[in-house]
Amino acid sequence: MSGRLQIDVFFDFICPWCLIGKRQLERAQQLLRRQQPDVQIVTQWHGVQLLPQLPATGLPFAEFYRQRLGSAEAVRMRQAQVRQAAMAVGVAIDLEGITTMPNTADAHRLLARAEALGDSARRDALLERLFAGYFQLGENLGCPQTLLAIASACGYPASELADCLTGDARAFIGKEQGASQGVPAFQFNARLTVVGAQPAEALLGAMDEALRSQCVEQPV
Asked: Any idea where the domains of the chain sit in the sequence?
């Protein structure tokens, strides 16, 4: 089968399930390329700011989760669940190394600018590095200087990106209609949406269904 598969992914950097879902999506794409090498896959990432009310400087990570989940024991259990799911897809998440729950508005603006510049390989490297910065290196993704340093390491001159970073907690407004049921959300050919960090096989099934529907709707 040939054709074009448009994948729109809705996510936030502070959501570990979005990183886990990213790995599942990558696996599903590998499987699809093996099975249907003539299909052109185009993936776009759309930022969804889960906590727009956070101050520009963010909040202390540990205290934020204690208040959100009610107790230190509840936090421990949730984090153990996240680590187990992450390890299952080959991701080591260092939750103890995260000190700040950041406001992600500028991080999303940064990636949106990178998307607009049109170099998908460089955009993908930036996306991966931002996830790693938060979940593995404990970097504050709400800090404009940190964001510019990360972008620079991915080959972006500061002149291309600096003006999109406001540093004032102004909300990021993106294409959020695909994330009405939560993130991560994966939309295939604008007709089929899968929500959550689903297994690669489930995502592959949705891809196949979207491609079959596309073929049925094409005029003879």
From this structure: 1-48+178-220, 59-101, 103-173
